[in-house]
Amino acid sequence: MDPIYLDHAATTPIDPEVLQIMVETYQSAVGNPSSIHSFGRKARKIVDDSRHEIAKYIGARSRELVFTSGGTEGDNLAILGTAFANSHKGKHIITTKIEHHGVLRTCAYLESQGFEVDYLDVDRSGRISIDDLKSKLRHDTILVTIMFANNEVGTIQPIREIAHLLAHHQAYFHTDVVQAFGTVDMDVKDTPIDLLSMAGHKIGGPKGIGFLYVRDGVSLKAYTHGGDQERKRRAGTENVPEIAGLARAVEKVGERLHERIQEGLKARQIMLETLDEEQIDYKINGNPEHFLPQILNLYFPGTQVETLLTKLDLAGVAVSSGSACTAGSVEPSHVLTAMFGKGAPETGSSIRISFGEGMNETRLREAGRIIAQSVRELTTIGKSGELM
Ligand SMILES: Cc1ncc(COP(=O)(O)O)c(C=O)c1O
Prior knowledge:
- By secondary structure, the chain is α/β, with parallel strands linked by helices.
- The chain has 13 helices and 14 strands.
- Helix 2 (38-58) runs parallel beside helix 8 and helix 10 crosses helix 13.
- The model is unreliable at 384-388 (pLDDT under 50).
- Pyridoxal-5'-phosphate binds at residues 70-72, 75, 100, 102, 147, 151, 176, 178-179, 199, 201, 210.
- Its EC number is 2.8.1.7.
């Protein structure tokens, strides 16, 4: 069978129209946007128009966007940039235990630089509590960074409540929208978010490009030093073709937001129906109400996640888990550990299935049956004690 890709939360295949625009831009816009001659002006116009399109989509002003190399850089710039620019007001930061490493490791670095970081707990569905956040807020808190939706389990945080809570506090509010962008309506005019980071490669855009929204008036210190690009917030020649591709990808998901949500929900339903028909024992990890439709994290009791992923890969189904291989040993997912506790069975027996454009029902059912078969084989082997 042709392998089936169900790992869109890791990255998405590039949209052919986006690719086309990039190829055309590579061919037609050869100048450096900082050059004053006609070649430079042509490249500059592409960057400006793209910025305008993207800003419009999130309800921002063009000058509030900084192009970055993706989610990790956006997270780093938001966190380091505000921390170092505002340390005279305080050195306290709040985040959660389930952030992407782009946030967690940046916060850990800041701790090594004398900042103090509180990591909020989450409940078993992956949500933080607003009361907990309130109790951790201090007069010297300068930044709260909480992801819009989690990349492993898809749980959406109470972003509007957090934003409104912080609207009257000195702390800036940063949210990583890398996974939520394209299936959640996002408008920074409605929700007082100060900084928001996204990556193009999760929405059919090119890899290695994204943006950070920085609300006018936010005090941010650049950490790349060089040219004056991006209003001195990010030095270096702009990646013009990828910026053009990113703008088209954003425009496309904007046009299809509603359909994308429906398609995600449908894919999810087909997968769960298939597992039910196959009488497989599973449990959904995540919040039953506040979730991204395209991410389905499932716990299969009695399985061992690495063995299951390898088996699925060999059978032609590409999915993933949040566990990471470090120095030859497997670290369980920090997200599932925060949700269920250290050593809980969910942390070693769960996989993430994530859906995207171009899925069809037949293929999804086929993948569901392969998953069911693999789970059945592993749990049967486990029970008989032949292999563990
Ligand atoms: C929530 C979240 N934040 C940040 C990132 C990092 O983005 P990038 O790979 O573009 O650096 C990812 C990527 O998986 C993500 O899921």
